[in-house]
Amino acid sequence: MMNRLLDWFSQLLSGPRFSHFSGRLARWLLALGGLALVFGTVWGLVYAPVDYQQGDSYRIIFIHVPSAFIAMSGYSFMAVAAVIALIWRTKLAEAIVTATAPVGAVFAFLALVTGSLWGKPMWGAYWAWDARLTSVLILFFIYLGIMALNSAYDDARKGARAAALLVVVGVVNLPIIHYSVEWWNSLHQGSTLKLTQSSSIAPEMLHPLLLTLLGTNLLFFAVVLLRSRARFLERERRKQWAAEIAVVLRPKGAFTALVSVAMGVFALAWIAFVAAFPPGTAQMLYRQPLQVQNGNVDPQASVTVGGRMTKTEQGWQIHDEYGQVAVNGSIKWRPTPAILRGHVDASGTLHTDRARWLSKWGWWVTMGGYGFFVWTAYALFALFALALVRYTLIYERSVCRRILAQKTVTS
Amino acid sequence: MPAHIGTENGDIMKGFTLNRVRKRRLIMLLIIIGFVAIAAAFTLTALNQNVMYYRSPAQVAAGDYPKNAVFRLGGLVVPGSVQRQSGSLAVEFEVTDGASNVTIRYTGILPDLFREGQGIITHGRLASDGIFVANEVLAKHDENYMPPEVKDSLKGVLAYHKDQ
Questions:
Q1: pTM, whole model, 2 decimals?
Q2: Does A290 lie in the same domain as A158?
Q3: How many domains does chain A have?
Q4: CA torsion A348→A349→A353→A357, rounded to 10°?
Q5: Whole-angstrom Cα distance, residue A153 to residue A150?
Q6: Closest CA of chain B from A28, distance in Å
Q7: What CATH code is carried by the domain that includes residue B116?
Q8: What average pLDDT does this structure show over A171-180?
Q9: Is residue A396 part of a domain?
Q10: Nearest CA of chain A to the CA of B128: how many Å?
Q11: Would you give the DSSP letter of residue B111?
């Protein structure tokens, strides 16, 4: 029974079969992963409630945690392939190792960048030499080292095996990353998602997070399958079956063009956002009423405060979920969200002479003042995820073209 | 798919069997991992003090801090200890780890998460009067995520936990 299972498995991993099933599987994973990511991010950005401490800035969690998860789980996956490549010396395992490294590197990079864009508004710094942050940075460098080592050899198989050895050595870093927040005093908080205990996150925030986590995983495996297959086909280009698959594939550029258009849309949307809401002091779009209440704004300088306007018995006030501030000024007040500019007096009243009125969506897009951080993180995530798909498709196409162009094929 | 696909023998692994050569490679691999793990463990134990991102007020009280040099000090902001000078951004507050307190002086905008009872990390030096003069204040946050309404209804429970 066990032997038959292993036989079936090894058959599945034989070149021609792998190439057939991985292509079909990758298409499904890509479609489902894309759907899960779209629904998960819209759910997380529009419908999930704000956090009791972090306000809207916490919404970066919906891409930060999946990126960090893939950076580590992708490494474990690559390490299993590396062990197989080193012991059994199969070409497919070698192709998987070399194909996974750049994908994992992208997600490690995204985990670092989205975390840094989250750290600035919450911690007060983009970067700290904290045990968790530093160990993830080392993971990113290990990924780059694996890629460099692989391409340092003229013989592809030798390069892949050298890279596989580095992959195995780098596994030591994984438990260090995971336990860094427990072993040492660190700025980074402990794990929110736990396997054995209940997670310390409200269900209405957990569900979109699980959806984006699923979507990112599917996307990762789709890209890894396609890249591994392309790499494998490239190695075996002189084989009859590789030529046959290249004929069947004959990839068209329509989907790649669609991905390019989507990348352009995300880039333009980000530029339009920054143009509409230029970031102010420390990249904040505006300060919150709570900060004015706490006296955490410079009394000497003018201050920008954002919130919803309400008329009370004492007059107009600007407020959000956390605090409120009385406002005063020669302005025709409106009961809509607004960004006000003015001075705070000793009694804590905001004297303003300039108001920018916002619609419901205009208010939402500012993300409680953290819009620059949230949208930059999301734009980078979208661009890098789409770029992974795009360059994988382009690579596949170039491999197929090369196979179809060659004269000699051995069976 | 063409009939012969999957029957070609060239690259098919004949199952994941371990013969003598493969067993030797596996053992070599395990030895390498073992040595790397031991090396990493030694390095991290030796660097333990440097990997610690900040010192606690109790360590400062015990004199365990770099004299006449900048270092990081972390703790919880003591509720009711935050004093602001009106008309400026100068602020003074105490941090505690439960065992000792240290007074911190800082001038500047504090991070949004700074509040009483919040964990913070400061960077600066201890002045001769025992006050820690900070040039940077970072706010730590916990791993809990919930909507404000849930937090309000939980306040009683959290207050209970704080007393423990």
A1: 0.91
A2: no
A3: 2
A4: 100
A5: 6
A6: 19
A7: 2.40.50.140
A8: 94
A9: yes
A10: 26
A11: P
Residue corresponding to tokens 């692994």: B13
Between A and B, how many residue pairs show a Cβ–Cβ distance under 8 A? 187
Length of chain B as a residue count: 164
- Domain count for chain B, please give it: 1
Residue A270 placed within a domain: yes
For residues A67 and A152, state if they share a domain: yes
State which residue of chain A sits closest to B84, comparing Cα positions.
Answer: A295
Which residues in chain A have their CB less than 8 angstroms from residue B80's CB?
none
Is position A252 within any domain?
yes
Query: Which of B13, B136, B137 lies nearest to residue A10, judging by beta carbons?
Result: B13
Tell me: do A243 and A332 sit in the same domain.
no
Domain match, A360 and A384 both: no
Residue-wise pLDDT for A275-333, tens only, equals 999 998 889 999 999 999 988 888 888 999 999 999 999 899 999 988 999 999 988 99
The residues, any chain, with a CB within 8 Å of residue A130's CB and separated by 6 or more, are: A186, A187, A188, B53
Residue A338: give the domain boundaries: 286-365
Tell me the shortest Cα–Cα distance from B133 to chain A, in angstroms: 18
How far is CA B12 from its chain centroid? 48
Residues pairing with B102 in the sheet:
B95
Q: Tell me the residues of chain A between 156 and 175 that have a Cβ less than 8 Å away from chain B.
A: 165, 168-169, 171-173
Residues A238 and A349 placed together within one structural domain of the fold: no
Task: Give ipTM to 2 decimals.
Answer: 0.81
Is A48 a member of any domain?
A: yes
